[in-house]
Amino acid sequence: xxxxxxxxxxxxxxxxxxxxxxxxxxxxxxxxxxxxxxxxxxxxxxxxxxxxxxxxxxxxxxxxxxxxxxxxxxxxxxxxxxxxxxxxxxxxxxxxxxxxxxxxxxxxxxxxxxxxxxxxxxxxxxxxxxxxxxxxxxxxxxxxxxxxxxxxxxxxxxxxxxxxx
Length: 165
Ligand SMILES: [Fe+2]
Hints:
Layout: H1 2-34, H2 38-64, H3 69-90, H4 95-122, H5 126-160
Helix pairs in contact: 1-2, 1-3, 1-4, 2-5, 4-5
């Protein structure tokens, strides 16, 4: 049944963004704790609160499809494991690295939610479309805030390293 395949695809997209949100929670917590630029840390903390809500909203949509809890847990654990590995490897010793990582991740999420939104639209799932729109607006706002901080964060890193001219 074509309609059923579409719903299966939609559930896969929902699982992917749920996993991404789990990853984001870990990354934002670590970033907020390690960033010595206070405005960057503040943007990360604010977005962490939004991100926890995103994870909840997506979990609700997954529940609507009776997506098995174990599948969801697996995806979440994979996301967390990947996040831990990434953070350990890249050891964000500067605010610059934290800002780059956060900026890149917001854009990954924006792309993911735009595609989820399209699939939900084609599946006729208006509730998921609405959730995707709501989350997209906050991801875009967070990306904009991070974008506005990049040069300042680079300056701050230079200052901190005593390189400022
Ligand atoms: Fe985000």
